[in-house]
Structures are given as structure tokens and as C-alpha cells.
Design goal:
The protein is α+β, with helices and mostly antiparallel strands and 276 residues long. The chain has helices at 29-36, 74-86, 154-162, 201-215, 270-275, and strands spanning 2-10, 13-19, 46-51, 58-64, 93-98, 101-108, 115-119, 123-128, 133-136, 140-145, 173-180, 183-190, 195-197, 221-226, 229-238, 241-250, 252-260. It is 18% helix and 43% strand. Strand 5 and strand 6 form a beta hairpin.
Length: 276
């Protein structure tokens, strides 16, 4: 089977984008995992299908790199907005459907780069402890505040927390956040990728909200630096509840092409290798 694809990234969080408006892409988990594999396939943190849905400009279906359909992806939502623009489906603004409901996105005027912001779902703090803050920003995140985050072994520590039984069978994403003069510095261990990613939109959003909650600082805008670049989170706070949440940052087109998905995948158990 041969398919056309495009690849985009938002602050280093990279995605394979497929036009599925005709509904002709029926990919198995192993095929998605193959396409996302950085040695045998295209290579990406996830794969996103652009679809049609009545009453919306488009729909978004997101798969982690392990091949499993997953929840909301903030950077992926910003990338699919740019992808939809490439087909002329939208111009400056969009309304789209994702796993966690309705969303809006729009272009932001900027010199020299494409900035896209997406409205995230309203949320509230689920739990708060000495270990960290747990909340759901479209995907579940446990935010740990620490000093010297750049020096942490995010993969080992993140994997340990991600599988903690307190987060249930599906586990959680884990963010390590540090206060810096201009805002926050955040590194994320993503479930489904089972590794650190250069950036995570829902994780950046969760970290900004968690910091506002634990610090008591009144703010409606937080700059967040990640290993892959800079994002900005806007929100309104009412105690433990947060609304009018927007994630903003750059989106870049990487390349497009065609790829053949072989009938027999070159890796016997691709999902197992990803999780190891």
C-alpha cells in the first residue's frame, strides 16, 4: 500500500499528517507504528488524520507513535491547522473536532515564522500533593516541579511515574517543570511515545496551569521554554478551575512525499520495541 503524507513539527514535536477526507486510510496499529518509526519509516512522535465532520472545518484523529489512537495533542492540533490551510480548507481561523471535543485555532501575525494558537479544553486541578500536580488538558499530565530540570534523567524518572498504579491502566504523561526568570522550562515524558519528546503541547499547558495554581501568582500569560522551542499559554483562573485556555507557538512544514507500507513489516514486534 502506497500513501501520500506530509510532515510538520511544532517546537520539535513532529507529526505525520494524512489527508483522510475520503475516508480511505484504515491503518492498523502496526502500520502506524511503522510509519512513525525513525529507522524503518518516516519518523515522528505521532500520526494525525485530517477528516471531514459536519458542522466543522475538519476533524482530527491522533495516534501515538506506538500505533494506538490517543487523546488530544496540542502541538498536533496546531500542525493540523497548518495542514488544513495547505488545502485551502481554512484561511485564518478554524473550528475542528478532536478526541476531547470542539476546538478553535487561528493564525497569529508574526514576523518571519508561522504562529498558530489553539484553544484547549477547560480544565481543573484533579489532585495536588508534595509529589506534583495532576490534571487533564485533553490528555492526563502529572506535573513535577524541580530545580535543575535540564540535568534530570527524564526518561527513567518519567517512565517510573507514568506507570504508577495510581494513574490507572492507561497511565499518564509526566512533565518536569522549573521556574525560570522569563516563565517556565519544561521537559516531558510522553506515554505512547514512551520517551522524552522535544515538546508537548498538552504538557506545556498543564505545566503553566499547575504553576499558576501552586504559586498563587495571578497571571493570564505564561511563556514556556522546552528543548524544542518556545510556547505561550494563556488562560483565565477561578480557584482550581481554568478556562479560555490557548496554546500558541510556531509550526513548520518539514517535507512531503510518498511511502510504501510493506505487506510484511520489517520489525517483528514494533510496538514492543517502542515500549522497551
Amino acid at each position: 500500500m502506497r500513501i501520500n503524507f506530509s510532515k510538520y513539527h511544532g517546537t520539535g514535536n513532529d507529526f505525520i499528517l494524512l489527508d483522510n477526507r475520503k475516508g480511505d486510510h484504515f491503518l492498523m496499529e502496526e502500520q502506524v507504528a511503522f510509519l512513525c518509526d525513525r529507522h524503518f519509516g518516516i519518523g515522528a512522535d505521532g500520526l494525525i488524520l485530517l477528516g471531514e465532520k459536519s458542522g466543522y472545518d475538519f476533524s482530527m484523529t491522533y495516534f501515538n507513535s506506538d500505533g494506538r489512537e490517543s487523546t488530544m495533542c496540542g502541538n498536533g492540533a496546531r500542525c493540523i491547522t497548518r495542514f488544513a490551510q495547505s488545502f485551502g480548507l481554512i484561511t485564518e481561523k478554524a473550528r475542528f473536532s478532536a478526541a476531547d471535543g470542539d476546538h478553535y485555532s487561528e493564525n497569529i501575525p508574526s514576523d518571519g515564522e508561522t504562529l498558530i494558537r489553539v484553544r484547549m479544553k477547560d480544565t481543573r486541578i484533579i489532585s495536588d500533593s508534595d509529589e506534583g500536580v495532576f490534571l487533564d488538558t485533553g490528555s492526563p499530565h502529572f506535573v513535577v516541579f524541580s530545580d535543575h530540570v535540564r540535568d534530570l534523567d527524564v526518561t527513567s524518572r518519567g517512565r517510573e511515574i507514568r506507570h504508577d498504579e495510581s494513574f490507572g491502566e492507561e497511565g499518564t504523561n509526566v512533565d518536569f517543570a522549573e521556574k525560570i526568570p522569563e516563565g517556565l522550562y519544561v521537559r516531558t515524558y510522553e506515554r505512547g511515545v514512551e520517551n522524552e519528546t522535544l515538546s508537548c503541547g498538552t504538557g506545556v499547558t498543564a505545566s503553566a496551569i499547575a504553576y499558576a495554581f501552586i504559586s498563587g501568582e495571578s497571571r493570564e500569560k505564561t511563556l514556556v521554554r522546552t528543548p524544542g522551542g518556545q510556547l505561550t499559554v494563556y488562560f483565565k483562573q477561578d480557584g482550581q478551575a481554568f478556562s479560555d485556555i490557548w496554546l500558541e507557538g510556531p509550526v513548520s512544514f518539514v517535507f512531503s512525499g510518498e511511502i510504501e507500507i510493506p505487506p510484511v513489516l520489517p520489525v517483528p514486534d514494533l510496538k514492543k520495541q517502542i515500549h522497551e
